[in-house]
Amino acid sequence: MARAESNVVETTNNDCPDFTSLLSTSERDFLMRNNRDHVKIESLREKKIGLYFSASWCRPCLRFTPTLVEVYSELSPKGDFEIIFVSRDENEEIFNAYFSKMPWLAIPYSDSETRSRLDDLFKVTGIPHLVLLDESGKVLTDEGVSIILKHGEKGYPFTHEKIRELTDLEEKARTEESIKPIFIRRSRRDFRVISDGDKVLVTSLVGKTFLLYFSAHWCPPCRAFTPKLIEVYEKIKSKNESFEVVFISSDRDQVSFDEYYSGMPWLALPFGDARKPLLSKIFNVRGIPMLITIGPTGKMVTKETRNLIMAHGADAYPFTDERLKEIETRYEKMALEEGKKTKADENEEGNPEEGWSCDGKVCTRV
Hints:
By secondary structure, the protein is α/β, with parallel strands linked by helices. The protein has helices at 4-11, 19-23, 59-75, 92-99, 112-121, 144-151, 160-175, 180-184, 220-239, 254-261, 275-282, 305-312, 321-349, and strands at residues 30-32, 38-40, 48-54, 81-87, 105-106, 129-133, 139-141, 191-193, 199-200, 209-215, 243-249, 267-268, 290-294, 300-302, 356-358, 363-365. The longest helix is centred in the C-terminal third of the chain and has 29 residues, at 321-349. It is elongated and about 85 Å long.
């Protein structure tokens, strides 16, 4: 999809169509609700608008629409925000069925000319696609889907300044603030232990280094990495009781969760726990497996734990910058000693005859 900045330049300068002409035709000056009521386009002036390009045949759209409904329900009472559905459905019957689940407005399905014009104007190359406009009809961003998924209603009024503010706050939360309150606030749903199903108080993690393991049974890279993590966990745990791993599942159902978790020796958030999406949002988890180290103070140490384990195994514990420097220093010392040994070996063997060159493996005539 085109980036928001390019759309701002191309569709919001002097050649931008008037707000009403953007959404209307000479025969139609209204939009419709799913109960067939008409709403005058003129009544939307001075409101922020979301143009929602979507279709019922699109699985990502079906997953995103309920989230957008929740955000709309939170913002609609403000009275200065509206969403307009721009359908890409194949016929009016399918359009009506999909639109019946939406609480906002829509371009009538019969007006294919306007729908196509909006597609072209905003360079829609994929759906779901959400273009957010300010009160004057200028594009705030065409990254509305990712903003809603990442920030929800907190992203309102969707200005660059607001999104930057939220991004900075989340970065601060990841690097400076303790995540302990996130666990404690719902402490009645504690972690479960694989050994006998006992519950463990979240306060048992206080003062420990622990890893948040975002993973799922349906994910092949996760299943490939988990045995390695188990090996490292057992090595570290045997020497450091103040270490733990917490499994945070992206499994699709309880059965899959139970099957996958049954092979893990560490703790886990219960399946479906409300803290999971909050943690995913705080740490901006876009893919799995993801392994995040939390230090004894409750602050994030690194998001690169998986790579560190693959490179150094249990030796990387406690995954701090200081530990990595120690490992690098040790490697440099080993390389230096190996270099001295090689040089000594070469000296013992003597210098090559004139006209020859030796590289340690073979001598060749120059």
